[in-house]
Amino acid sequence: MAKIGRNDRCPCGSGKKYKHCCMAQDEAAAREKLAAATTATAAGQHDPHLCDDCNEQLDAAANAVLALIDAREFAAAEQAAHELLARFPAVHDGYECLGRLYQAKGDNLQAADCYRKVIAFARNEPHLYDPHFIDHFQGLIDGLEPRAAAAD
Predict the structure, then answer these.
(1) Is this model's pTM higher than 0.85 or not?
(2) Contact 117, 106 (CB under 8 A)
(3) CA angle 19-146-37, nearest 5°?
């Protein structure tokens, strides 16, 4: 399927330009799919440190932060991410949310720092993470710091 351009007519048939019609929904769905794929890369669907109820609360809180980021409500997202981190300090999700927030705000250095902390969680308990989990976050760091990666 060919990529839809921002200024192309929307494929839904509305007659509007894609950027004024379905583009925001499509981008949000793509971000949600990426977030779900990232979460699913952790071994199992739940963190073994937490009970099922706490895992559900963790998932809901992380999804709420991501929704605030998507809505570009950065102040509320930052507060919610810090609350997530304070409430669930034994898991990587708070740092992942903060990394996504800082990346959305264009603060690549802080985003990369948060992603390094996510990697540290995976290195501390490698039996809980898919082998590609670290590679995914290292790729994000490399994308945020292209000059540092090129210098190595």
Answers:
(1) no
(2) no
(3) 55
Lookup result for tokens 């971000």: 31
Distance CA 115, CA 121 (A): 10
How far is Cα 57 from Cα 47, in angstroms, rounded to an integer? 12
pLDDT in tens, 126-135: 888 888 999 9
